[in-house]
Amino acid sequence: MQELDEQINEVLDILIENDALIGHELRSMLKNFKEEKVAVGYSFGKLCYLYYEAFTDCLNEDIYKVAAAIELLILSFDIIDDLQDKDSDYSWTKTPDLSLNVALAMLVMASRTIRETSFEHKNTAIQILEDYALRSINGQQLDLLNTCRDEQSYIQMIEQKSGSLSAMACLIGEVLATGGTSSEVEEYGKYIGIIQQIKNDIQSLKTWGPKNDLLNKRYSLPIIYLLSQENDVSKSVINYYNDDMDAFLDNNATENELTNGGAIRYAITMKNVYKFKALNILENVTINKLGEDYLKRLMK
């Protein structure tokens, strides 16, 4: 998979360097922001490639451009998300006004890059990109409103916010290869996004600092579980979330309750529910062994 990351990265460099409508300052920031994400890898671009490869008999080299275009959109969303949440150390948070222009440029470049490929079904791919991007934005809006305070509404929110983007990548790969899309690939893509979001929710609670969801009075599956328990810790957390002036949050007791009281185990169980759903779908898609191993790693 490292070779695929390198190919997507190389195409990203070419796209950024060769865009004649981007000025020097904007191009420089694009390059820098892209470099900060290299170490994370290009998981969405790889999803697109793997599903394209699974359904095609003849590889079109333009698929690397499409994978890079998807990564431009994903990075633009990451930048906007970080600017909204104000909980990131990436360089784009230091110059939010200028960084917003970079994110907007990436959005335009993403759809234009796909439009300029040689794929027969590129217009359908662009339609998928736009539709699922809007679904994700709607999910992000719900997340920022912080009103999804039960399991069902929270799952629906992360399905839109995160699941839409991973589903988008898979479906674009499929449609470029076949001209159509399937509900199985869409469902699988959504499950991958949900799994990743739940993993992020769990990780957030492992560090008792400025990025901790509970300290920021955010809702996530383990926190929703904790708040549903009728004990002293849950009552103190409820008071903290309700801005009770007399609320006392015992960090050690709260951490212990999250870890040993079932909240984290509940979130892991929910993650595994979607993992098994995704694995069932994956069994019916012919993907090479390397790709299959990568997709299974995403679900761990």
Automatic annotation (TrEMBL):
Keywords, in A-Z order: Magnesium, Metal-binding, Transferase
Domain of life: Bacteria
CDD domains the record matches: Trans_IPPS (cd00867)
Pfam families (UniProt xref): polyprenyl_synt
Cofactor(s), names only, from the UniProt record: Mg(2+)
Record-stated family: Belongs to the FPP/GGPP synthase family.
Protein's recorded name: Polyprenyl synthetase family protein
Naturally occurring in which organism (per UniProt): Lysinibacillus xylanilyticus
